[in-house]
Specification:
The protein has 276 residues and is an all-alpha fold. The protein has one domain. Helix content is 78%, strand content 0%. The protein is built from 13 helices and no strands. The chain is globular and about 70 Å long. The protein starts with 6 loop residues before the first helix and ends with a helix. The mean pLDDT is 89.
C-alpha cells in the first residue's frame, strides 16, 4: 500500500522534529539534560502523528471509515498528550526560537485567549463541540472531499486535545501535580468521545454512505461493520486512556499526600532540635 506524500504534513513533522532536537541539545549544553522518558514521550507522539498522516493509514482512510477514525484516535487521543508530556518545562521555554517566543509572549490578547481556552470548564466543552461538529455528515464529508478542510479538521482535533490536556498535565511546571480534580476533568473529556463512539456502534445505517458507499466490501466488510469497528475503536481507546490517566492522577495524589505528611512530621522534630 502506498504512502501519503503530501508535502504539507511531512514538512510540519520535520520542523517539529528539528525544533525538539534543537531544544534538547541547547538544554544539554546548559547543564539541564531532558529526561529520557520525556524525550521518548515526544518522539512516540511524533511517530504516531507520522503514522496517521504519512503512512498507509492516510490512503486507506479515503476508503474505510474505520481507518479514518483510527487517524483521529492517533492524532487527538494519543499523539497530542504524549507530545505535550514531551514539551514539559524547560523544553517548553526552548522549543521555539527566542525571537519568535518573545514576540508571542508579548501578545497579551493571545496569552489571555490561551489561558481562557485551557481552563477545564472551557476546554472540555470546546473539545467535545469540535469533535461532534466535525462528525456531522456535511462537515465530515467536506473534509474527505477537500484536502484543505481535511487538514483543518486534523489541526483542530490536535489543538483542542492539547487544550484539554494542558490543565491536568501542566507542561509549564517541572512536575505534574496530583490534584484529584484532574481525574474528573479527564473523565469528562473522554466520556464525550466514548458517547460518539457508542453512537456509531448503535446506528443501523452507514453515517457517511454518500462518500464511502460500498468501498468497505473490497476489504471483506460491510459498510455498517466498517462503521462499527470505527466506533468501537473510539470507545476502547477513550476507555484505556481514561483508566490510565485516572490511575496516574490517583497515584500522584497519594504520592503528594505522603510527601506532605512526611514534611509536616519533620517540622515539629526540627523545631524541637532548634529549641534545645
Amino acid at each position: 500500500m502506498s504512502l501519503s506524500l503530501d508535502p504539507g504534513p511531512i514538512v510540519l513533522l520535520l520542523v517539529a522534529l528539528a525544533l525538539y532536537a534543537r531544544a534538547t541539545v541547547v538544554l544539554r549544553r546548559r547543564g539541564r539534560p531532558v529526561p529520557v522518558a520525556q524525550q521518548i514521550a515526544w518522539y512516540l507522539g511524533l511517530l504516531l502523528l507520522t503514522v496517521a498522516l504519512v503512512g498507509p493509514l492516510d490512503a486507506l482512510a479515503s476508503r474505510l471509515l474505520s481507518a479514518h477514525m483510527a487517524q483521529h484516535v492517533l492524532i487527538a487521543d494519543l499523539a497530542a498528550p504524549l507530545m505535550l508530556i514531551g514539551l514539559r518545562t524547560p523544553v517548553l521555554l526552548f522549543f521555539l526560537p527566542r525571537p519568535l517566543l518573545v514576540t508571542l509572549a508579548r501578545r497579551r490578547g493571545l496569552r489571555r485567549a490561551l489561558t481562557t481556552l485551557s481552563r477545564p470548564l472551557v476546554a472540555v466543552p470546546v473539545y467535545i463541540a469540535t469533535l461532534y461538529l466535525w462528525h456531522l455528515g456535511v462537515l465530515f464529508e467536506a473534509g474527505l472531499r477537500n484536502d484543505v478542510v481535511h487538514a483543518l479538521q486534523h489541526a483542530s482535533f490536535m489543538a483542542t486535545s492539547a487544550l484539554v490536556w494542558w490543565a491536568p498535565l501542566e507542561p509549564q511546571r517541572a512536575r505534574v501535580g496530583g490534584e484529584l480534580w484532574k481525574a474528573g476533568h479527564v473523565l469528562a473529556a473522554r466520556l464525550g468521545g466514548m458517547m460518539l463512539g457508542m453512537a456509531f456502534l448503535a446506528m443501523r445505517a452507514p453515517a457517511y454512505g454518500d462518500f464511502y458507499g460500498d468501498a468497505a466490501r473490497a476489504y471483506g466488510l460491510t459498510p455498517l461493520a466498517d462503521q462499527q469497528i470505527g466506533g468501537a475503536l473510539m470507545m476502547v481507546t477513550d476507555l484505556l486512556v481514561m483508566l490510565a490517566a485516572l490511575a496516574f492522577f490517583f497515584w500522584r495524589a497519594s504520592d503528594d499526600d505522603a510527601a506532605a505528611e512526611a514534611s509536616a512530621a519533620d517540622q515539629p522534630s526540627a523545631a524541637l532540635v532548634a529549641n534545645r
